[in-house]
């Protein structure tokens, strides 16, 4: 029987993380590197991700590969995979983390915006996973994690572009699960509201809105990027080697509303 250190030993593993310059992506990169992995950090924000990667290499001593990638462009994703294999010789796991969506009313979008939301949040994960599959199939305990969202499995008319794309992401991952059998594991995180710096306000939240959300969360706080990184590491680890097809909800217990409200 393996001990806890062995179950979470990522030495020799090569993990691609999309959206690695963001709060969750950078924290996942840092944490998995600290566990021994070599991290491929891909993001459109090249200078930001370069700085993060340099800090990680200094902290952990493990190699990284940084690439500027527009995840709405298939050729750039294909090139990311090629460069990863050229440098490290393999791909052990993938975290499909890139994605974003602003507040958009139900009937306030249009074809271009809806399609762009799908390309960034869903199609990016499809293409990255597709190009990685030949290499993942060669690895023991190969694993793919998708960053889903609470808005993707609940009615979310305030975020129609983002929520529709994230719903598609979940069902796409379910199809990958049953088609891949024992070769590669696929799991999704259903992520609740996260304290990720300026991104929440860019998405349309005011501080008053954030405070009101926190009041309803069972654990009375928003999640931290480290909370999500912890869950990602678990799903990639040997400890989760018999887990595939799960949608792990990480949301502080969610928002509870009394069935007998007094106001």
TrEMBL record:
Keywords of the record: Oxidoreductase
Keyword Transferase among record annotations: no
InterPro entries on file: NAD(P)-bd_dom_sf, SDR_fam
Presence of the UniProt keyword Membrane in the record: no
Annotated family: Belongs to the short-chain dehydrogenases/reductases (SDR) family.
Protein name (record): SDR family oxidoreductase
Annotated source species: Mesonia profundi
